[in-house]
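Good day; I would like, with your permission, to put a structural problem before you. What I wish to show you is a protein chain and, alongside it, a tokenised description of its three-dimensional fold. Thank you for your consideration; the sequence and its tokens are set out here:
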Amino acid sequence: MDFNYVTQGKAIPLGVILITLFYLLGGSSSGMGPYFIITCILVAFIKNNTLGDSVVAATLTSIFGIIIVSVISLGSIYLMYGETYLIYILSSYYIYIVFYLIGGIIGGIIGHYLDREIKKSNTNPYL
């Protein structure tokens, strides 16, 4: 796995922007899990040199997406409801962070194997 290959290019920033847009357009009432998985599949589809590259790129996208979505979400909760409700939300917010991170890793694995199957079906001479 080449970490420089994974971090160069626009795949990870594109994924973070997509996660942020999905969050802002979808609203905080909807679950972000499917958006993380879909975006990480896309990032892994772009960075598909090896399975390690795909998983690391999807995980980095997921981590940066979690940070940005958390800051926006917790900031709006603090402004609307105050500090007491923010502390209440933070007590259960860590489990969502773990779920989104696992979703990003799973999306990276799915994206790698999806690209591999597409390339394999395109090289089939009988199609």
